[in-house]
Amino acid sequence: MNKSCIFSYSKKTKNFNNKNHDFNNENFIEHKEINKIIWEFPHLYFITKNNKLYRIEITEGGAIFEKENIISITSSFSKYNYLTQNRVILKNDNEINLPQLDVNDKIINFATTGDLTCCFLLTERGKVFIYGLNGYGIFGCKSLKEGQEITSFMEHTELEEKIKSKIVDIKCGYSFCVIKCENGDCYGSGYNYYRDIGITTMNELHKFTLLKEIEGRVKQYYCGHFSCVFLTFDGDVYVCGKQSGGQFGINFPLNNGLGIPLTKLELNGNI
User: With a threshold of 0.85, does the pTM exceed it?
Assistant: First the structure.
């Protein structure tokens, strides 16, 4: 989370009351310190990486989320996307109603692409809902054309039929998506020109494709704009995608047009 994100809250609210909360806007707002932001009207909570909790209270009107709780926030290029208990707000102002869920099911994950053209919702039961532009075939649906736009949340029944293990996580890069299953499998779809997803055979993946090299092994993963990092259960780290400044520590040409295929890092000890 960066400074502009915190200041955007200041612009949306007329006054902050920091009495008795040891909160100072200028000193506190450092992106390296903040781990999570939670909104529970009328309070905004900041959790730091060393597990300190700060709270500020909105004492006047002007809040865009009055009497709503923010469940999750994503951001890209100073635009912010919010998931509340009632709706999704994309790019600060585009509101979408949440889909109707089964009884006792709930949304546990909210992922948006870096280009802010689409988003994914994941429920506790492993159901996936999609919204927005199917750029580069990111939704991986046979029933949708590349570039087709979905104007309300649609359940991705094709994905649920294809993947037998329960889906437990969804993350997005700039224009691609990677899902993780309960059994440790990962599947990717969408933009893959820089081998962003790690699959070397195609520049665009119009269906969710299994990452066979790490099949059943993924414990955690992260998607950058044009790259991915995977941590396996046995402590190995795999990377793929665009290495623009040597950040992977791999001796690869910096301007290699195809990026780096899925590659195991040689580390001094496991993670």
Answer: no
